[in-house]
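Write out the 3D structure for:
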Amino acid sequence: MTAKKPEPFSRRELLFGFMDRIRGRDRAETAPTGLDSGLAKADEVFAQGKWSEALEAYRDSLSTSPLNDEARVRVGICFYRLEKHTQAMTELKAVLRKRPHNLASLYLGLTHARRGELDKTLAAWKAYFDPGRVALMREVNLQCACIEEGHEVDSGEVARAVENALEADRKSVADTA
């Protein structure tokens, strides 16, 4: 008999992920990543902005369930927030090699911008599409247009503008909850 290949994600994740997208629940960066207590603790410290603690908690979780893409994206975000851009790129690209993921594309673009790689920033943000986050999409598209047109743009300013839009979007989601 041949060994069964591991699935990239469970049927449950597929079904509920699809239903959440229909309901618009994948919008929040702070949405829970799983059901086990380790992930719940990681999600809690992530929501509080304790990036080092969240990073360790997500890494512990990934050691037992390495196929959890949401946790891997969160690891990438933690690395980004800790200004460890090479590690952030590694984690985010690992998810994007498997499937499209909006937050991974957004943060990969931010990571490239922080590294001064505007051509790669543009490529990452071309894969980002979230019509539920209008203000954020507008800012990403504006920055992409400036890069494409060849305007003299500072990569740090590009990242800062999108980070500000991301923060404003996060606050508006929290205000409506």
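The chain has nine helices and no strands.
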